[in-house]
Each structure stands twice: as C-alpha cells, then as structure tokens.
Write a structure and sequence with these properties.
The complex is a heterotrimer. By secondary structure, chain A is mostly helical. Chain A has 2 domains: 2-57, no CATH class; 78-281, MetI-like fold. Chain A has helices at residues 2-26, 32-39, 45-57, 71-106, 111-124, 128-141, 153-162, 191-224, 227-234, 239-277, 282-291, 295-323; strands spanning 178-181, 184-186. In chain C, α4 (111-120) crosses α5 (127-140) and α7 packs parallel to α8 (189-206). Chain C starts with 6 loop residues before the first strand and ends with a helix. The chains are: A mainly alpha, B mainly alpha, C alpha/beta. Chains in contact: A-B, A-C.
Chain lengths: 334, 310, 335
C-alpha cells in the first residue's frame, strides 16, 4: 500500500510538470488572448495549479475547445475503443509469450526456439506503425504476386499461394457494435467488430510480444538454474510438474511486475496504432487535440493516462501479492 | 605517433573484443551493413542522383512512379518516385542521413545527461539521489515515447509549424535526448554504486582527491562498458522514436524528410497501390535498427554479461 | 563370496561441455556403499564432491554430463537409465539433502504442497494420507507445532527449521540411501551440531545408508564409518574413517588433518597446505597434487599414480607406494 501511494504521488508529480510547462509556453502563442480568459493565466502558476487540482478532484477538467463539452465526457466516449484494443492486444501477448518463452527456455537448443528468438530480435527492430502498414498491405489491400510464369501449373500455384486477398478492415471499428453500458460500445460481440479489431490488435501486440518472449525466456532460464528446481527433480517429480508448477510460478513473478510497467508503455503505442488504423480511441483523440491545440483535452488525456497507470500499478501489486506468498496484503510489505 | 597508433592497433587485434568479433558472423555482417549505411548517408550528396531539397529538380509529372522491375517504371528512378515526384533513392539516402544524425545526436545528449545525473545520484546519494531517481522513475513509467510525444506536442504547439520545421533536427535531438536520459542514468548509477564499494575509491579518498576528480577520473572509466552497450541500443531506440514522432507529424517536415516522415508521407498513398513510397524507406529503417540492435546484443554478450542484473 | 553392495560406482567420468572443448570434473571415480553404511566424502571446495553427489542421481547441472562409468544401484546402472525410470528412484529410493536450505525449498509453494507432491510422485495415495505421512516425518525431525508448518511457506521458517523440513522430505518415502551435500554448511554454528546429530540418529534408527559430503573432517570422523578424500576430480584416498584420520597416507590428506585447529599447539600458527587447488581449466599433468606436494618427483609430474593398498586404505600416491615397496624389500632382505 505504501508503495502504491508513492507511485500515485510520483505520477501526480509527473503530471503537474507537463501541465505547467504547457500553460507557460502557450502564452507566447497567438491564442494568448483566448487562453488568458479560458485558463486565467494571469494568476501565479501555483494558484493555477491548485485551482486545477481542486477542480480535477471534483471530476472537472474543463471543456474541450473543439467539442465544446466537458473533456471527461469526450474521453469517456473514446476510452472504450482504446481499452478494447489494449485488452485484445494484451490477451494475444499473454497467450503467445508465455508458451513460446517457456518452450524456448526448456529447449534452448531446439530449432524452433532459435527461430522464435530470431524472429523476436527482428521484431524488436520493427516500429509498430510499420508492422501496421505491412499488415494493411497484405491483409487489407491484398497482394497480387505475378513473379512466376502463369503459363505453368506450378507458377500459377505459387502466384496464388503468395498472393493474399486482403479484405480485413483497416479503418475504424465498424458499424455493428454492441452497446454495453454508458458510452461503452463493444466490438467484441459481433463479427464485424472483431474483424475490425484483428489488425490493430496484432499491430499493438507485435511491439510488446518480442519483449515478453525474451523476458519470459530469460526469467525461466534463470529459475531453471536454481537449487529448488534441482531439488524438485531430486524428489522424483515429473518434468511437467517441475517446469509448469515449480518453475513457471517463480517465472511469473518478475514477468507480472515488468508486465505492469509495459502496459504503461503500451498506452503510448496506442497513439501510433490508432493513428494508422484511424481507430476512434483516446490516442487518436489526443493527437487530434494536439493538432487542434485543444489544450484542456490534452491535459485531461494526460490526467486520465496517469490515473490508468495508478490503477494498473495497483492491480499489478494485487496480483503479485496473490501469487507471491512472501508479500502479505495486509499493508506491510515483506 | 605512428608507432603509438600501431601498437594500439596491435593491442586491439589481440583483445578479446576483436577475437569474439571475428568469431561472430552476425556481428560482422551487421557491422558492415551498418558501415555501408552510414557511409551512404554521410556521402548522400555525392551518391544521390538528385537533390530532394532542391525544389527546382522536382517534376510533379514524375509522381508515384513504381520502382524498376514493375510496369511503368522509369530507369532514371531506380526505386520509383514519391507523390511529389521526388526520386525515392535520393530521398532515402538523405532520410537515412537525417535519421542517423538525430539518432547519434540524441544519444550524445542523453549520454551526457545520463552520465552526469547518474554519477551525481550514485556518488552523492541521499537527497540528490532520491530526487533524480524519482524523476527518472516517473519518466520511465510514462514510457520514453510518451514523454517524447508530449514534449514534441508542446514544442510544436508553441513554436508553430513553420518554425518547428526549420529547427526540427535540433528539436528532435533535444526531445529524444531528454526523454531517454533515465535509461543511461540508471545504468551509470547502478555501476557507480557497485564501484563505490571497491577499495580503490577508498584509496583515492584517503589520498585526498576532490570529489569531482574521484567521480570523473576514477569511477567513470569503470562504468564505461555498460554505458557503451546501452548507448548502442539507445541509438536504435532514438531512431525508432524519431520515426514514430515523424510518423505522428511531430517530427521532420516532408520538405526535409527523415525515414519516419517518408513512411508517413507514403502511408497516405498506400490505399492507391503505391506501396513502395512507404515500404522501401520502412525496410531501410528496419535494417538500420536491426543491425544496430544486433551489434548491441553482441556487445552486451562480450562486454558485460551481467548487465541486466544491474 | 562378498555380497554386492547397495550402491557401487565404477570408473565414473563427468565432464562439462563448454566452449572450446570438454572440462573433466570427475575422473575414474570408484567407490561403494553398503546398506546402512555411512560414507564421508571430503575435499576442498571445487574438488568435485558435489558433482559426485549429483551425478549419482544423474542430476549434474547442464552443461555437465556423465561421460563414462557405471552407477550400479541394486545391480541396475543409473547412468544408463531412462529419465522415466530414474524418476522412480529419485526421492523414493535415494533421497538428497541440499546444501543451502534457503535456496532449496520453492519460495512460492507451501511446505505441505512440497511434501505431499513428493509422496504422490511415487505412491498412489490420497492427499489426506500423504499429509499424514508428511506430518509424521515432521514430528520425527522434531519440528515444533508440525501441523502449522504444513500450511506455511519457506520464508516463514528459520534456516535450521527449513533444513529439518528438508530432512523430513528426505525421510518421506523411507529411502535406502540419503545423499547429504554439506547439509550444515549454510547454517549457524550452534545449529550445525544439532542438525548433524539428528541426521545421524535418524539414519541409525532406520538403517539408512548415508553419503555425507562435507569439508569438515571433524564431522566425518564423528559420523562416518568410511571416507573418501577427493582432490581435483579424483579420489586420492579411501578407506575406514578411523584409519585415515589416525594415520593418513596421502600427503594431501595429511595436510588436511594437520590443518585442523585442535591438532596444533594452542597459540601456534595453523598449518596450511601451500598453494591452492588447480581449476578445471588447467589441471596439471600427472598427479594433480604435485605442485603443492613436498614429496613431488618427476614421476608424479608425468603420470597419475595407481591405487595401492596400505592396511585397509587405498591410496593413489607414488610416495606411499615407494614406501611400501621399500618395506617389502626390507622384509625380504630380513627373512
């Protein structure tokens, strides 16, 4: 609990800074008159900040210039789209990175492990927007290959096999969304919604997946070297029990901690992913707010992102406590 | 002078670094690819068939020509042309130059900041340490890309598009350098903490050297190898960050494109089938980042296997 | 005819596959262990004691592997056995006690889980019955409030208690052999004697054979009946413990014994064997001890001596074999 409060405090600290910076810099803009009125810039910085913080605590982060309605309302409209994107990508990462990482750790010499590690090294070097573009080219626009002579059977076959039809949507979330509650319209329950989710989720997952595979593998390999694993084997336990109970449970502890931090980083990448796919989430909204100089909306976005960090950090600590018996959840940390 | 360099060269040839380099095919290939790209970028003005900055040489009639080997290609433009009729080969050469320049520049800046703050935090400890590391933690939990996007957005908003375009290179170096310093600062701090416990530091203290001298002359040299490894990987990161910022429209303007802004400008035309405008610079970017990362991996293995343990 | 021993190791070679060729960790190790016998394995750290212990159950950590020789347990070769068959022996017929109790128990699983899983890996019984066995063994090792311990996690127990738990785990399935790898080294000095006494008592009670790996000659002389002295991956001397302690033949063993504090005069400087044991990377030719041996001859530098018998002790040393030869000559001359 103490740790969480420190993190929360730190993030609030961090949020204060860009806000003040932004407000301070904007004075030199041509919008200065508008801004002065809107934000009361004639007051000392500290007063502004206190007023801002006071309003924020009451859930009031000002009105967006562009949408002319409360910024939190604007964010609430866009947030579900981003959350679904993040959830989809996280699921993909979890379902793929753990089995691959574990496999690569247990059989480091296997051909398949080397292949996965090679792919993940290359994967780290590919920026997310480029992955997205390639995916769009292949699966949405489609590729027609005509490298092989079409007058022979095998040439035709190869051309056909290498060509893709495309057709997966690469733009927006589709129209067929299910209304869950409030502003949450979900794409998880309809075919069209899911189809729209595929490419953005794969793109977003692709940036973190290599990292997680490497992390799981490195941690698992270290755990496999430990005395208690050798001891478990000396007790005559089956390889399955040793690997998947004794080793995996210890592997997951650091993976959970690092994973929590990575979710924060993923938020930054949603901005890129959403831009490529014109995904109507908060990332795209943020970028549009920047081009429109919609300062209240920018600030509100940063506040919400900060809040999301605090929440995920809390969740991560909770999950960590559940898995790790050495951490007591009664408030004192071992 | 010659003898000195010669013996240094000999010593290098005897070193473990050179030995393991010779044995590692991936490292050799990566090194030569990188060397080739750096040379091509440095000599871009000599190599490029046209000058993409020179508006007079651009003919809009030549726009969106495909690369050689496809229908409708013009042999004058081996990699095709972009939407404005610029020769892709030339823009890519110049773009690589811009990307590399920003990558190196940003790393020099963040290394300076990181080493300075890391040394201070690690050596002085106490309040200086906790304040600096607090800032670093907050920045890292926000992710460096996020910080870069925010700072970039603020700068762009306050300078305006035109002016931002003119000083974009320096801005990007500054933004990425500032956004990523915590990585290096943490590494430096960790090695300083480890070095501080060793006896030679006590010895230096007993001999009455000043703090500055101990920090820079005694501790710093011993923390260089992890810094070197991190810095290599950070160049790759900086290039990717730059590309991401440019892709979001917060980086290099199209008149003075980096690889990232080339990809962005091409992305607008991908639906019309002109994939080469975006994918060829994309491929160059990936190869550039990949070889740097591979070299970084190799360096890490050779120089400091326990780097991740901090 | 001599009855076959419970465990017989014949000419065991263990190597580590590292970049640039193999390193030999154990060379030509041969010894045997009878039912209920207590055998000590002594030597400096790095002599290969632990490797020898782990290789019996084929648990040498990668990149180590058994390169040759046999490990016969009740006539069956463990070195040639499949992983599946080995598993039936590990923990069941041959149990191990590791050096550091802090690192041996899995931190994220409760004591009960770790005990029950060991039983259920070998016996088809209910969890309830397995817990009862676990409880019984915890009582046997005299752990206070054993019921509570089953639901506790390792970090909630002290080092001494954890080692008791590990001994309890070793006893779970009434094994024939317990291999204890420096079971008290990581513990407080005050607890060491307690744990050692407990282990000895339990082994005597159930007539379990004990293979005790240690560098503590004092413990070996109190606990074991026979002992092996290892140096640089070889056994250089083996025989009845009392005979070796009282009259060590090999210069290295002599050095070890002379280095014990109680052997010297009070206030006198402790004896040291000059130099240190060679690393696996550059084992000297001939007898590996020759660079530190005051009797070393050219013969020692070139070839490894064969074992010779002196009393009931087998020694690999040219100095000893030469002495025996001389005695023989004197006797022949005298008769």
């Amino acid at each position: 609990m103490f740790v969480i409060s420190v993190i929360a405090f730190a993030i609030q600290d961090g949020l204060g800074d860009p806000l003040q910076e932004m407000v301070g810099m904007s004075v030199s803009q041509e919008e200065r008159e508008v801004l002065r009125d809107e934000l009361g810039l004639n007051d000392p910085v500290l007063v502004q900040y206190l007023r801002f913080a006071g309003n924020a605590l009451q859930g009031d982060l000002g009105d967006s210039y562009f949408y002319s309605k409360p910024t939190l309302e604007v964010i609430a409209e866009h947030l579900p789209a981003t959350l679904e994107l993040v959830i989809g990508a996280s699921l993909m990462i979890m379902l793929l990175s753990v089995p691959i990482g574990v496999y690569a750790a247990i059989r480091p010499q296997a051909w398949l492990s080397k292949f996965f590690m090679g792919v993940s090294t290359v994967g780290i070097s590919i920026p997310v927007f480029l992955t997205a573009i390639v995916l769009i080219q292949i699966f949405s626009i489609g590729v027609t290959v005509a490298w092989f002579p079409a007058d022979t059977g095998w040439g035709q076959w190869l051309n056909g096999a290498l060509s893709t039809e495309g057709g997966l949507p690469s733009y927006g979330r589709g129209d067929d969304l299910t209304h869950l509650f409030g502003t949450w319209y979900s794409g998880f329950f309809t075919r069209e919604g899911l189809m729209h989710l595929v490419l953005p989720c794969v793109s977003l997952a692709s940036i973190m997946l290599p990292l997680f595979i490497r992390l799981v593998r490195a941690e698992m390999m270290e755990v496999l070297q430990s005395d208690y694993i050798r001891y478990a084997r000396a007790k005559g336990l089956s390889a399955g029990r040793v690997n998947f109970l004794h080793a995996l449970k210890n592997t997951m502890l650091p993976v959970i901690t690092v994973g929590g931090v990575q979710i924060g980083i993923m938020v930054a990448y949603t901005i890129l992913t959403e831009t490529v796919f014109q995904w109507p989430g908060v990332g795209l909204m943020f970028l549009e707010a920047i081009t429109r100089s919609d300062i209240p909306l920018i600030v509100a976005y940063l506040m919400v992102v900060g809040l999301i960090f605090v929440i995920t950090n809390t969740l991560v600590d909770l999950v960590y406590g559940l898995v790790n018996p050495t951490v007591k959840l009664t408030g004192k940390k071992a | 002078m010659t003898t000195a360099t010669l013996s240094r060269w000999d010593r290098f040839r005897d070193s473990f670094l050179w030995y393991s380099f010779k044995r590692d095919k991936v490292a050799i290939v990566s090194f030569f690819v990188l060397l080739l790209m750096v040379l091509a970028a440095v000599f871009a003005p000599l190599l490029a068939p046209t000058d993409p900055y020179d508006l007079a040489m651009i003919n809009i009639m030549n726009s969106e020509l495909p690369p050689v080997g496809m229908d409708g290609a013009d042999p004058a433009f081996p990699l095709g042309t972009d939407a404005q009729g610029r020769d892709m080969l030339s823009t890519i050469l110049y773009g690589t130059r811009v990307s590399l320049l920003i990558g190196f520049g940003a790393v020099v800046l963040q290394a300076t900041l990181g080493i300075l703050f890391g040394l201070l935090a690690g050596y002085l400890g106490g309040r200086v340490d906790s304040i600096l590391m607090r800032i670093a933690d907050v920045q890292l939990s926000f992710s460096t890309l996020m910080v870069a996007i925010i700072v970039g957005a603020v700068f762009k908003a306050s300078f305006g598009n035109l002016m931002f375009g003119e000083i974009a290179i320096y801005m990007l170096i500054f933004i990425i350098g500032v956004a990523e310093w915590p990585q290096i600062a943490r590494t430096v701090r960790a090695s300083v903490l480890a070095e501080k416990k060793k006896e030679y530091v006590d010895a230096a203290k007993v001999m009455g050297f000043r703090t500055n001298r101990i920090m820079f002359r005694h501790i710093l040299p011993n923390t260089l190898s992890p810094i070197f490894v991190i810095a290599t990987v950070q160049i790759a990161n900086a290039i990717i960050s730059e590309a991401a910022l440019s892709f979001l429209g917060l980086g290099m303007p199209e008149t003075q494109p980096s690889l990232g802004s080339l990809i962005k400008s091409g992305f607008d035309y991908i639906q019309s089938g002109s994939w080469w405008i975006t994918l060829i610079p994309g491929l160059v970017l990936v190869v550039l980042v990949l070889v740097i990362n591979l070299l970084g991996d190799w360096l890490r293995d050779v120089m400091n296997p326990r780097l991740y343990k901090g | 005819m001599k009855k076959t021993p419970l465990l017989e190791v014949k000419d065991l070679d263990v190597r580590f596959a590292v970049r640039g060729g193999d390193l030999t960790a154990l060379r030509g190790i041969s010894f045997s262990l009878d039912k209920g016998e207590r055998l000590g394995l002594v030597g400096e750290s790095g002599a290969g004691k632990s490797v020898a212990a782990f290789s019996i159950l084929n648990l040498v950590a990668r990149p180590g592997y058994i390169a040759g020789g046999q490990i016969l347990f009740e006539g069956r070769d463990l070195a040639a056995m499949s992983e599946r068959e080995l598993r039936k022996i590990r923990g069941n017929r041959i149990a191990m006690i590791f050096q550091d109790p802090m690192m041996t128990l899995n931190p994220v699983l409760s004591i009960g889980t770790q005990m029950v899983e060991a039983i259920k890996a070998h016996r088809r019984i209910s969890t309830k019955a397995a817990r009862d066995i676990a409880l019984d063994r915890l009582r046997k090792v005299q752990i206070p409030s054993p019921e509570k311990r089953l639901d506790q996690y390792p970090h909630e127990l002290s080092g001494g208690m954890r080692q008791r738990v590990i001994i309890a785990v070793a006893l779970l399935l009434d094994p024939e052999i317990i291999i204890a790898d420096e079971p008290t080294t990581a513990l407080d000095v005050t607890i060491q004697a307690e744990i050692m006494a407990l282990l000895l008592e339990l082994c005597e009670q159930d007539n379990v054979a004990l293979m005790l790996i240690t560098h503590d000659l004092g413990v070996v002389s109190q606990v074991t009946q026979r002992m092996l002295v290892m140096y640089s991956g070889r056994i250089i001397e083996q025989g009845p413990t009392r005979e070796i302690i009282n009259d060590a033949q090999h210069p290295y063993t002599q050095g070890l014994i002379n280095a014990l504090p109680q052997m010297g005069e009070p206030g006198a400087r402790l004896f040291q064997i000059p130099g240190s044991m060679p690393s696996l990377k550059n084992v000297p030719t001939g007898c590996p001890f020759h660079p530190r041996c005051r009797f070393a001859t050219d013969q020692c530098r070139q070839t490894m001596p064969e074992y010779v018998r002196s009393g009931n002790v087998d020694v690999a040393c040219y100095e000893v074999s030469n002495l025996i030869e001389q005695e023989k000559h004197m006797q022949e001359a005298g008769s």
